[in-house]
């Protein structure tokens, strides 16, 4: 069973993910239908970043996963037997 600290960290991560999802959804789906002079546009980055930031995040994810796999494979390699 998870300890109280583990549960608190998990709930914090879930809460952060939910806020990020809501922010991105409003930014990409709702904001284009709101007038450009509305005050709500001040809380969001320019629309170009809605494509650039997830692309950078995806590249970083692939980089970190690839690095992790390379390190694990490097540590688990077996020396060649000499005859």
Automatic annotation (TrEMBL):
Reported function: Regulatory subunit of the dolichol-phosphate mannose (DPM) synthase complex; essential for the ER localization.
Localization, UniProt: Endoplasmic reticulum membrane
InterPro entries associated with the record: DPM2
Claim: Glycosyltransferase is one of the keywords in the record: no
Family according to the record: Belongs to the DPM2 family.
Pathway of action: Protein modification; protein glycosylation
Bilayer topology: Multi-pass membrane protein
Biological source species: Huso huso
Chief location of this protein within or outside the cell: endoplasmic reticulum
Signal peptide: none
Listed PANTHER family: DOLICHOL PHOSPHATE-MANNOSE BIOSYNTHESIS REGULATORY PROTEIN (PTHR15039:SF11)
Top-level taxon in the UniProt lineage: Eukaryota
Protein name from the UniProt record: Dolichol phosphate-mannose biosynthesis regulatory protein
């Amino acid at each position: 069973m998870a300890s109280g600290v583990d549960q608190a960290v998990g709930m914090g991560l879930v809460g952060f993910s939910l806020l990020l999802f809501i922010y991105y959804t409003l930014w990409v789906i709702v904001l284009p239908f709101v007038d450009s002079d509305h005050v709500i546009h001040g809380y969001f980055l320019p629309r170009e970043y809605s494509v650039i930031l997830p692309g950078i995040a995806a590249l970083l994810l692939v980089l970190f996963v690839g690095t992790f796999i390379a390190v694990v494979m490097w540590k688990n390699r077996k020396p060649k037997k000499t005859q």
